[in-house]
């Protein structure tokens, strides 16, 4: 009987570990719960989100400093989504002038 409770607990932990966190609706605590997002990054995400929801991963990367393609791929693998979508490497690199202008 005890092994059933252990198995149920493991299944719950696995489910929570793979839970998706939506960048446009997540709370600070939910963002902080993703490995690789600390208080500074979650604060920048929430601040950028005040100007409007992120349309896609490229929009998030342009508006949130410290999140580039490599970081976006890592965060996506750890459960972060933008508009319900995981990160997919863009066809062309982000223009550096656009990143610094904002």
TrEMBL record:
Keyword check for Signal: yes
Pfam families associated with the record: HHH_3 (PF12836)
Signal peptide: 1-19
Protein name, per record: Competence protein ComEA
Keyword hit for NAD: no
Keywords, alphabetical: Signal
Lineage: Bacteria, Pseudomonadati, Pseudomonadota, Betaproteobacteria, Burkholderiales
Region feature (Disordered): 80-102
The organism of origin for this protein: Comamonas odontotermitis
